[in-house]
Amino acid sequence: MLLQRMQEAVQKRTFTKWINSHLAKHVPPLVMTDLFEDIKDGVMLLALLEVLSGQKLPCEQGKKLKRIHWVANIGTALKFLEGRKSAYRGSPIKLVNINSTDIVDGRPSIVLGLVWTIILYFQIEELTSSLPALHTMSSSTSSLDSSTSSTEITSPPLKKKTLPPLQGGARKALLRWVQQTATKSLSLEVRDFGPSWRTGLAFFAVINALRPNLVDMERVWGRPNRENLHEAFLLAETELGIPQLLEPEDVDVEKPDEKSVMTYVAQFLKHLPERKQSGSEGQLQVEVTGCLGLDSLSLEQRKSLRELRMWLDQLERDAIQAQETEGSLAQQYQLFKSLRVHLEMRRKQVEGALQSTQRDGMLTVDQALVKQAWERISKRLLDWHLQLDRSLPAPLDTVGAWLHEAEEALRQEITIQQAHDITASTVHRALEQHKVRTQLHFQTCKLSFPC
């Protein structure tokens, strides 16, 4: 019981710092001081979900909110979470034994369970699911199978054409990444997210894997635990921009809290160096020094691009789920419109993010992946719109199809030829084709709606 209370206290501090690192991006910025109290009215919880998802959520606000408004806000948040899909299972997130009234009452175990679910889904799952190298590594890690949390997701991930499913869920993926990229080369054994991190050496190993020149591993070996922990957390914050979610005294104990350590360690995945991309990212195949220019983006720009790509990927998953939702044609149009509005709200941000910073005008790897994600979700929404229009009663279905054909004709790029007469001929031919289509559809409408 004492151990449980101590771990809950650590989780409360860690989770509060994690939440505040994201609420700082909210407009206006917000600060949570007491997790169990500040979450009760649901206002900060909804603000957090807005920052993480990039979506606007309805929220009851004001100084005179009553309990009924609190319950409504928490209900909105829980419903939003249940509508999201796990990056591993591809199925909706399950909130086990979490309800609005328990959150409004500030029950510690329920509040911590909710926040952990958010961290697991929005940070750990999202980041570990994009580690293609892990999918091909040996799965002979039987020592990782023990002491798994009941909140962990251990189902197979969403299947991809070019990669076999990663077994073991987000915890195993994160631990395997640490072992293969950081600790293995130093003969440092890391079996868990608890006692293995007590000395601080594992944190230094992760930093060393990302920035080899920052850490003198020979110097830190054998030093007191808290001295190592303090320096590692400070180094990660000042050099990599990773918020210090943990305190040395949180980790230098017999059984450090695994969820807190996982929350902190997962942040390092946002700072991975560029690597070769393969067909797992659609059909895009790029190398940093190949067809794309060397990455001259700042650390913050690269982080922003990766978050933008994650948002676009999630919007595509939401679109897929919405298309599978049963409902009337009017309801389907409303779902489509909502997703389309969310996408258009990001258009200027995406256009700004895709401005080349390279001398040769080429995009960096992160920019290219954002461009591909944008084009993919745009095409999906366009196809869905066409499908909805074709479901309209005649002759509106024909008119809708024609409008899409006309828009497609206007979107087609005409290559400027060296010979101007060839270009003029191409433009003239396109205009004539469009004119013929217009006349045909005008006749169809005239027959259907006689004066």
Strand content: under 5%
CATH superfamily of the largest domain: Calponin-like domain
Question: Under CATH, the topology of the largest domain is which?
Answer: Actin-binding Protein, T-fimbrin, domain 1
Proportion in helices: 55-70%
CATH architecture of the largest domain: Orthogonal Bundle
Number of strands: 0
Sketch the major β-sheet.
none
| Ends distance | 82 Å
Q: Pick out the low-confidence regions.
A: 133-167, 275-295, 413-419, 445-449
When the domains are counted, the total is 3
- Overall mean pLDDT: 77
Q: Pairing-aware structural class of the strands and helices?
A: mainly alpha
Radius of gyration: 26 Å
CATH hierarchy, class of the largest domain: Mainly Alpha
Helix-strand topology string:
HHHHHHHHHHHHHHHHHH
Count of helices? 18
Overall 3D shape: globular
Structural summary, described in words:
The protein is mainly alpha-helical and about 450 residues long. The protein folds into three domains: about 1-130, Calponin-like domain (Actin-binding Protein, T-fimbrin, domain 1, Orthogonal Bundle), CATH 1.10.418; about 165-275, Actin-binding Protein, T-fimbrin, domain 1; about 285-390, Methane Monooxygenase Hydroxylase, Chain G, domain 1 (Up-down Bundle). Helix content is about 55%, strand content about 0%. The protein has 18 helices and no strands. The protein has helices at about 1-25, 35-40, 45-55, 65-80, 100-105, 110-130, 170-185, 200-210, 215-220, 225-240, 250, 260-265, 300-325, 330-345, 345-355, 365-390, 395-410, 420-450. α13 packs parallel to α16 (about 365-390) and α14 packs antiparallel against α16 (about 365-390). The chain starts with a helix and ends with a helix. One of its GO terms (molecular function) is actin filament binding.
